[in-house]
Amino acid sequence: MIVQQFNSGLGNQMFQYVFFRSLVKQHPEVRVRGDLTWFEWKVEHQGYELKKLFGIKIPEASPLEIALTSGQFPLNIPLGRYINRGLRIFDKKYIKEHCRDEISLIEMKNLDTRRNHYLTGFYISEVYYRDDLDEIRRIFKFPEEEVASSSVMAHHIESAEAVSIHVRRGDYLDPIYAGKFDLLREDYYRAAVKRMREIYEKPHFFIFSDDKDFIKEAFHWIPAEERTIVSGNTGSDSWKDMYLMSICRGNILANSTFSTWGALLGDPKGRHVIYPKAYISGLDSEVKTIEGWERL
Questions:
Q1: What range defines the domain where residue 23 resides?
Q2: Are residues 232 and 274 in the same domain?
Q3: Which of 99, 126, 153 is the last residue of a domain?
Q4: How many domains does the chain contain in total?
Q5: Per-residue pLDDT averaged across 285-290, rounded?
Q6: CA distances, 19 to each of 40, 99, 175, 279 (Å)
Q7: Model pLDDT for residues 176-201, shown as the tens digit of each residue
Q8: Among 265, 280, 215, residue whose Cα is nearest residue 11
Q9: Residue 163, SS3?
Q10: pTM of the complete model beyond 0.85
């Protein structure tokens, strides 16, 4: 049996699902289940969104299956009824040997399926999705009735040589993440804007951020007639920013899976994507081989 944990925000959930699909395809003889209990006790981001947005129904692991594979009971499960049945709480040695974090594609294909496995990670490397992007774009299709509410901004974007700029700040400023993620500096965005002006004849920059007050002043160096700050998509509507990024002609990404998917889901024809070398503190982003993607 294989159980994979799902957690974090929408972008990470999407990468985790791509990996989950690969697990199911590679190991059809094995029971593969998702552990969604993280969303029941963590109040972060917008909760579990794959079902709501894309109609994806992941076969869920039971509390007993989670315990057997991970060595730990979900926090929201009363332990008494399981302990009374004689099921033991596994020690740290068991957890270390049986839980896997961020396994490679080769390791995933060669898992010893005679054993139980509990997998947890984000799986953001392009090796997990690069060769299956057409199918992935069909799976991650936003609900049309919800997309319609963004029609005014979508029309504005589609009427221009639109280039999105994503600025991730919100949770990166939280003490929990202090020092973990790089906050991208102005010199990255200046260099990316300069590059996009070399590629597109008359680019118009649509700026997306979880810190709207910050970007009102931060991008004063882009002439007002060449920029639009996209606002209004907050809370449960935050995903609409990803949709709007996807219909832009080009994308300037933050070190964020959210804007990465905004670029991946769009029509690749004529699309140029700039992504930062800086990612996690002390660790550069991977060099992508997708056509039209450039690292700065």
A1: 2-126
A2: yes
A3: 126
A4: 2
A5: 93
A6: 22, 16, 30, 21
A7: 656 676 678 999 999 999 999 999 99
A8: 265
A9: strand
A10: yes
